[in-house]
Amino acid sequence: MEHTISITEQAERKVTDTKSLPFGKIPTEHMFIAEYKNGEWQNAQVVPFHDLTLSPLALCLHYGQTVFEGMKAFVMADGKINIFRMDKHHDRFSKSLHRMCMPHVPKKLFKDAIHQLVQLDAEWVPKEEDGSLYIRPFMIATEDRIGVKVSDEFLFMVVASPAFAYYTKPLKVKVETTYVRAAAGGTGAAKCGGNYGGAFYPTQQARDAGYDQVLWTDSVHHEFIEESGTMNAMFYYDNVLVTPQTSGTILDGVTRDTLLTIAREKGIVVEERHVSYHELVKAFEEGKRIEAFGAGTAAVVAPIEIIAIGHKEYKCYVEPDAIMYQLQKALLDIRKGVEPDPHKWNYVI
Ligand SMILES: Cc1ncc(COP(=O)(O)O)c(C=O)c1O
User: Fold this and answer.
1) Which of 81, 105, 121, 224 could form a disulfide with 28 if both were Cys (CB 3.0 to 4.6 A apart)?
2) Ligand 1 binding pocket includes 230 (Cβ within 6 Å)
3) Residue 76 domain boundaries
């Protein structure tokens, strides 16, 4: 079904200095909102950013029927605005919605909503090298009823916020062997709110112990690396880029897919497989040069400097000639439009 998006512009639009503010704190002037009622999407609108009115009975507030995406728009070298990998983000949004019994959003509606919002708030896309506009499409269950059930009503919204460097220095992470993020058959591969709520407690404990993030391990053996915070985990040693396979318990990261594609095209051997922390310990103890990094939309590549495994801390290679920075540069060059985009990852407004 075709959807018409009505646009109401904010009378006075003001771009504040957003660089000094924490990630995600300042929304742009507008937002997109559409309602799902009686089995269809309706009232698709771009409107001035405003608070929502929700019944305290709204199902999302009680049972976590919520799904979101995170993507970015950038100013390219020629000044045009590029929204990176919209199709793949829509694919993942669709899979998450399906897993959470939430209604499909047609690809055209998803892309049009984001396009209209970014176009209208184009002044908010930072022009600085390390800047981008973080775009957050999300859906919540809004039916007002305190009863454990699949909601009949939803809101699909898109908001955006200027973003700058996510991490300012290499990370210290801790391999987590007590708590788990996801188990086989669970919702680990969906970008649903509950996965994040459940991760707070172990992550907070790691922070209290002086680490930035945890590296999750599998729920059965507490041995095989899964992912980290809001990033997929990657390792480079013995001339091989190794990353855990997408088995259903980790998020199928868009950055992960992009970096693996770039690496393969550069002739780097890529292995998607189980990565035991014992394997890492052995490699560290043999004195190998090991690169470890997180891959995700927020930071693109987040170098990991220290990995704590049990009571020992191991040091990873984070010098400027590391392969991870070459992969990151290749991604940024495609995004900026200074290198060809053979896979059509760029959506240029
Ligand atoms: C749990 C988790 N893993 C991995 C990622 C990285 O995915 P992407 O590269 O699509 O941002 C994210 C961020 O979306 C995440 O929240």
Assistant:
1) 121
2) yes
3) 6-163
